[in-house]
């Protein structure tokens, strides 16, 4: 399973990259705004800076909501760097744009997916990635992981190559459960990825090993 980090924060992207487990980055307009990145030139430069940190795919989301504008914006984003994946919203023109980019060999990530039907459409359009938002479904008392299972079953039934990119991942157990279900990729904050490290028995065990070693060495 691939690990993407879901942030536009360069320091956190570097930290995840240095851990050696980072396969790519996803961003969205809210994450860019959170870092204070505004203005077209700054936004494009920021995507380039992200591509310089990671070797993997970097999702850059269009702001446009009509087909022609999405194509123009997506082409400009894709031209920035070979690692850029054009992120498109799951609306009618977004599906059309996913088909357009797929035929041109440009990678896409269809985002804001909340149902199996939407994921089926994204695959039919030839999207590289589909992003079901599991945390936001959990927020409204709907099982986000169940959606991943449904999409996995549908894609496997027909051999769709669109990768299931579980998004809106909030914590370590989302990641573990996505791995059990067969999501191709997770994207989440650095905190969720680093939480996979943690176990008190590891910390206690290491403290004991080091204490025993120091004790023996002092004799
Ligand atoms: O990748 C989608 C993600 O950014 C949404 O996450 O935590 O805002 O629901 P969240």
From TrEMBL:
Any one cellular-component term (Gene Ontology): cytoplasm
A GO molecular-function descriptor: transaldolase activity
Active site: 87 (schiff-base intermediate with substrate)
InterPro entries referenced in this protein's UniProt entry, alphabetically: Aldolase_TIM, TAL/FSA, Transaldolase_3B, Transaldolase_3B/F6P_aldolase, Transaldolase_AS, TSA/FSA_arc/bac
Pathway(s) where this gene product acts: Carbohydrate degradation; pentose phosphate pathway; D-glyceraldehyde 3-phosphate and beta-D-fructose 6-phosphate from D-ribose 5-phosphate and D-xylulose 5-phosphate (non-oxidative stage): step 2/3
EC number: 2.2.1.2
Catalytic reactions on record: D-sedoheptulose 7-phosphate + D-glyceraldehyde 3-phosphate = D-erythrose 4-phosphate + beta-D-fructose 6-phosphate
Keyword annotations: Cytoplasm, Pentose shunt, Schiff base, Transferase
Cell location: Cytoplasm
Cross-referenced Pfam families: TAL_FSA
HAMAP family per record: Transaldolase_3b
Family membership: Belongs to the transaldolase family. Type 3B subfamily.
Functional description taken from the UniProt entry: Transaldolase is important for the balance of metabolites in the pentose-phosphate pathway.
Record protein name field: Probable transaldolase
Species whose genome carries this gene: Flavobacterium akiainvivens
Lineage: Bacteria, Pseudomonadati, Bacteroidota, Flavobacteriia, Flavobacteriales
């Amino acid at each position: 399973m691939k690990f993407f980090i879901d942030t536009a924060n360069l320091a956190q992207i570097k930290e995840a990259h240095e851990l050696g487990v980072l396969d790519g980055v996803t961003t969205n307009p809210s994450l860019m705004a959170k870092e204070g990145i505004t203005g077209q030139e700054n936004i494009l430069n920021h995507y380039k800076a992200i591509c310089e940190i990671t070797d993997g795919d970097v999702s850059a989301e269009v702001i446009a909501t009509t087909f022609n504008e999405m194509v123009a914006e997506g082409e400009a984003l894709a031209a920035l760097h070979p690692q850029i994946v054009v992120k498109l919203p799951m609306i009618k023109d977004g599906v059309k744009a996913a088909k357009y980019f797929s035929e041109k060999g440009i990678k896409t990530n269809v985002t804001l997916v909340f149902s199996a039907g939407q994921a089926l459409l994204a695959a039919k359009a030839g999207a590289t990635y589909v992003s079901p938002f599991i945390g936001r479904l959990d927020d409204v008392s709907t099982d986000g992981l169940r959606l991943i299972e449904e999409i996995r079953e549908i894609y496997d039934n027909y051999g769709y190559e669109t990768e299931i990119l579980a998004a809106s991942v909030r914590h370590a157990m989302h990641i573990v459960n996505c791995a059990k279900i067969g999501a191709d990729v997770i994207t989440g904050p650095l905190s969720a990825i680093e939480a996979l490290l943690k176990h008190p028995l590891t910390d206690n065990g290491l403290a004991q090993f080091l204490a025993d070693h120091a004790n023996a060495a002092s004799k």
